[in-house]
Amino acid sequence: MSSKYWNEKTETLPRAELEEQQLKFLREEIKFAYENAPYYKRSFDAAGVKPDDIKTLADLAKFPFIDKKTQRDTQGVGSFLGELAAVPEEQVVFVSTSSGSTGVPTMSPFTQQDFDEWQDVESRWFWQAGMRPNDRYVHALNFSLYVGGPDVIGAQRLGALCIWGGTLPSERLIFILQTYKPTCIWTSPSYAWYLGETCKKNGVDPRKDLAINKIFVAGEMGGSIGATRKAIEDLWGAELFDFYGLSDIFGACAAQCEVHDGLHIAEDHILVETIDLQTGEVLRPGERGELVYTTLRKRARPMIRFRTGDIGWIDNTPCKCGRTHGRIHVDGRKDDMFIVSAVNVYPSDIEYVIRGLEEVTGEYTIRVYEKDFTCKYEVTVENSGKLPDDAVTRKVSDSLKARCGVKPANVIVLPDGSLERSTHKAKRIIDERKQSPGAV
Question: Which domains can be identified in the chain, with CATH numbers?
Answer without folding.
Answer: 1-333 (3.40.50.12780), 338-431 (3.30.300.30)
